[in-house]
Amino acid sequence: MLLLLLLLGAAAAAAAAAAAGGTSSTGSSSTSSSSSSSRMMMMMMMMMEEYWSGTWAAVALALGAAYMAWFWRLARGLRGGPRVWPVVGSLPGLVQNAERMHEWIAGNLRGAGGTYQTCICAVPGLARRAGLVTVTCDPRNLEHVLKSRFDNYPKGPTWHAVFRDLLGDGIFNSDGDTWLLQRKTAALEFTTRTLRHAMSRWVARSIHLRLLPILSHAADARSPVDLQDLLLRLTFDNICGLAFGKDPETLSPGLPENAFAVAFDRATEATLQRFIFPEFVWQFKKRLQFGMEATLASSVAHVDRYLSAVIKARKLELVSSSSPSPSPSPDRHDDLLSRFMKKGSYSDDFLQQVALNFILAGRDTSSVALSWFFWLVSTHPPVERRILLELASVLADSRGAPADSAAWLASPLAFEEVDRLVYLKAALSETLRLYPSVPEDSKHVVADDVLPDGTFVPAGSSVTYSIYSAGRMKSVWGDDCLEFRPERWLSPDGTKFEPHDSFKFVAFNAGPRICLGKDLAYLQMKSIAAAVLLRHRLAVVPGHRVEQKMSLTLFMKHGLKMHVAARDLNPIVAELRRTRPEALAAPPPESQVNKSSAVPTEVAAVTA
Hints:
The protein is an alpha+beta fold and 608 residues long. The chain is built from 23 helices and 9 strands.
């Protein structure tokens, strides 16, 4: 090639010299020489153009062949999964199935035996790290990632960068020593029985004074309600009350907007938008304060101001309450924020992160689970009937057999009564198996590793564990895995709740990061479900479509529009009288009647 270039250069130089020499000749010879030189120059240029075009074509062909060879090796090295295309990887499949993402992932996992690998960026230098994703629902792999090799699979830098503006370095958004310190501190509070009793009081108050009046009004007016919206408001009020003792009252007649709730929702939505774009894109928009990044900044600022004021006020209240008082109220400051303040000298930033992380972790998850629960129960009458029979049995044991079953409804269920609802807990667990509140989660791979099923995962890649798919595998749950059957959670005699392995049922996560608020979540969900089903019959509005919304939390895309009607419990009491006559034979001993079932006055007096 070099020799050819030299020859072409020499020929061009000779042609130029001939043209220059021809200027001293006569006119005719000069014209002839010039014409000849021009033709020679054009020929040389055409030869060079043809050479270079051929060279670039050859280079492009060689590069294309090299890329296809690399891509072929990459595709062959991936384990199962959807089709991977050059450059764009599996993005076409993701886009095509965007409206049914969780079902699509579950179908891929069934076909691949529980684990597959895909690449969303089939570009050399990026594919193995930034683009390679291992997707699994194999319980052995989940135990490996979430427990056995926990330190090798943190949330990672991408997750931390996305949530940092909203959650800081809180427990939900941290790894390593920062996470461990907060986890140990929080665990001490979540294991106390007093916190569960505090949750019980907040839930009882909001049910009795907020939710039930709204549902009763809807039943009387024969107007449908969006139950998902009501539950979101209810759990938000409850979680704020338990987190920092302040009720935002979003669940009130007229369903008013609350500035803090609106700011929190907008901040959460804007944060989740970051997952759609590469980090450099949203970082650039953040610097320019453009679009959703501007919304995020203003919303986070509002949330910060609100929580700063709450923390300041709570500190003053704790100082004043420490002085002698003629009428002490021991339950007044039993919220999570006050508990942290009493135990140590934490900074305001730390306390704010505790409150925010707790709200984010506990608000949407319970309300979403309850939405799917009420929909499933309304479409499975035998399950609803068994729940009602259990409720009637527990109430008969604790409150006696009333002349009119309506007497049972005078007050919310007490903590001890809720704790005995075994079948209801089974139905809620079955709901979470099929419709987990967080359907997918992911981890960052720190060092090369091999999963128990033999799948190699390189450092820098990510592992997505599909909680949605884990509950829908025949290999784990049997041939009836897609059926709503609460009995799979009960002992053979049906009297005890039998939990499944936490790496098969991952709705509350597993391993060191297992949900600290699991018991609180069950308490809240059981209390709300029992109160609603005892008093009302629910039916989906005809024509209303119940579909999944594709987001980090498994919301219903169009809400849950339901008709509400008053329930007549007399048929249930009559059936209980036939099946368990001893339950209604005599009133319970005075010691068994829970005197705290009414709404506690000290909770009702909490400032809103």
